[in-house]
Amino acid sequence: MEIWINPACSKCRSAISLLDAQGADYTVRRYLEDVPSADEIREVLTRLGLEPWDITRTQEAAAKELGLKDWARDGASRDRWITALTEHPKLIQRPIITADDGTAVVGRTDEAVRDALSR
Q: Which is it for strands 2-5 and 96-98: parallel, antiparallel or unpaired?
């Protein structure tokens, strides 16, 4: 299991605390420093069953500068969104936990983290 985190994020710290309390075996990826490639983002999206706009933090300053709220949310625009996430990793929703069964969850709640642990 791997968890993508921003150490400054309270939701990330909470998820790590819960993983530790459950004795989970996981690795930490500080995705702002170790930025995921476009292929890695595509893989995580497949595992999540989501689209890139579903995991984009649209209230971030970079999102506003890029005008993301006006970007199309369709298949033709998918790569544009993925490129934005690779160029501005702060836009990636966090934490993302990749479970051992090949799925993933956005672990913003204790329930979501427990769900990842049960997989």
A: antiparallel
Please identify which of the residues 9, 24, 32, 62 carries the catalytic annotation.
9
Q: What is the pLDDT of residues 44-56, one digit of tens each?
A: 999 999 999 999 9
Does 12 qualify as catalytic in the annotation? no
Displacement of CA 36 from its chain's centroid (Å): 10
pTM above 0.90, yes or no: yes
DSSP 22-86: TT---EEEETTTSPPPHHHHHHHHHHHT--GGGGB-TTSHHHHHHTGGGS--SGGGHHHHHHHHH
Exposed e or buried b for every residue in 55-83, given b needs 16+ CB within 10 A? bbeeeeeebeebebeebeeeeeebeebbe
Dmax over Cα atoms in the chain, in whole Å?
43
The kind and range of the H/E element at 112 are helix 110-117
